[in-house]
Amino acid sequence: MTDLPLFFQISVYIGFASVAISLLLAFIRLIIGQSLADRVVALDLMVVLVIAFIALFAIARQETVFLDANIALALVAFLSTVAFARYVEWQRQQSKTKETSHA
Amino acid sequence: MLSSLGMVFASILILLGSAFALIAALGLVRMPDLYMRMHAATKAGTLGVGFIVFAVAVFFADLRVFVEAFIIVVFLLITAPIGAHVLARAAYLSGLQLWNLEQDDLKGCYNEESHILDNEPQPAAGKLKHVVN
Q: Which of A12, A64, A80, B73 is most buried, judging by how many CB atoms fall within 10 Å of its CB?
């Protein structure tokens, strides 16, 4: 990375720092949550931010192989979000059927 | 290696992308309800990552990297709205209300069991005085 011009190094470091801060903020939302759907949104944003982090890392190390990991992550993020959304819907229906069976 | 003009372009893209990522995370923490949080996280987050991945493509200036970056960006742009829609729909059907809501036009429109839209949403005529005033 030291063979690159200084302004480019500085902007990559600023990118790393702001993506790390964003990951921290998303993690705060993941902890305080309030509802399961909030936590799913926070996890979704965290995966997207990890994609950004790996892309920046590929620039810093000047290795292109890290982008393959990015493609896999982009695929998995969508699947997990949809699965969690199905779970949120299913959970509500389960609690509803329980209420009716008790009454 | 890259010309210095390409370096300037890539660093501008990185700075733009990281600013959008920061805005997305800030919105996720500060917004008052789930739908607004989703609005911040999905749109600004996807745009920020899109900028950064495009910066990677500009930096390496290689056809294979460009195709890979293109695949990543297109896939994110396709899946982010679908995932957000599915999740917002599940959250609405599980009873999560919007923040500061005066009137819910969709109330009673969904079938309770099948989660299919039975009838079109009708704005209630008697409750529109808030809008007029």
A: A12
HSE value, Cβ hemisphere, 13 Å, CA-based, for A22? 33
Amino acid at A36: L
In angstroms, rounded to a whole number, what is the distance separating the alpha carbons of residues A78 and B80? 7
Determine which of B1, B35, B53, B65 to mutate to test the interface with A (most A C-beta atoms within 10 Å): B53
Number of H helices, E strands in chain B: 5, 0
Of B14, B28, B75, the CB nearest to A74: B75
Secondary structure class of A18 (helix, strand, coil)? helix
Q: How far is A99 from chain B (nearest CA, A)?
A: 14
Q: Give the largest CA-CA distance in chain A.
A: 72
| pLDDT class of B133 with cuts at 50, 70, 90 | very low
CATH tag, A6-102: 1.10.287
Tokens linked to A18: 């702001």
Question: How far away is chain B from the Cα of A69, in angstroms, using its nearest Cα?
Answer: 10
Residue range A43-90, pLDDT digits in tens: 999 999 999 999 999 999 999 999 999 999 988 888 888 998 889 888
What residues does each domain of chain A span?
6-102
C-alpha span between B95 and B79 (Å, rounded): 25
Query: What number is the ipTM of this complex?
Result: 0.88
CA A33 to chain CA centroid, Å, is: 15
Q: Are B14 and A19 in contact (CB under 8 A)?
A: no
